[in-house]
Amino acid sequence: MLKGTITQLIDRGFGFIKTEDGKELFFHRSEIAGVEFSRLRVGQEVEFEMGQDKKGRSAAVKVTLIETKAPEPPPLSIV
Predict the structure, then answer these.
(1) pLDDT string in tens for the chain (79-residue length)
(2) Which residues of 33-60 are buried (b: 16+ CB within 10 A; e: fewer)?
(3) Dist CA 14 CA 78 (whole Å)
(4) Selecting from 3.30.230.10, 1.10.10.10, 1.20.1250.20, 2.40.50.140, what CATH number does the domain 2-65 have?
(5) Domain limits of the chain?
(6) pTM for this predicted structure
C-alpha cells in the first residue's frame, strides 16, 4: 500500500491525493473503503493502491484512511 495526503475534495464525488513522492492522483468516491466521502477532509492521510480510472488514467484505488490516535491526556495530579 502507498501513502498520501488528501489535497482536494470536489462535491461531485472525487478528489486528489498527493503521494509521498509529490505526484497528484485522482480518486473517485467509489474507491473509498470504511468511511463516507462526506466525512473526508483535506489534510487527512490515506493508504491506497495504484490503479486506473475508467478512461485508463492513473488513479488511486482501494483508498482507506490512516487512523491517527488521539494524544493521550496528561496524567492527573492529585492535590
Answers:
(1) 999 999 999 999 999 999 999 999 999 999 999 899 999 999 999 999 999 988 899 999 999 999 766 566 677 767 6
(2) eeeebeebeeebebbbeeeebeeeeebb
(3) 50
(4) 2.40.50.140
(5) 2-65
(6) 0.80
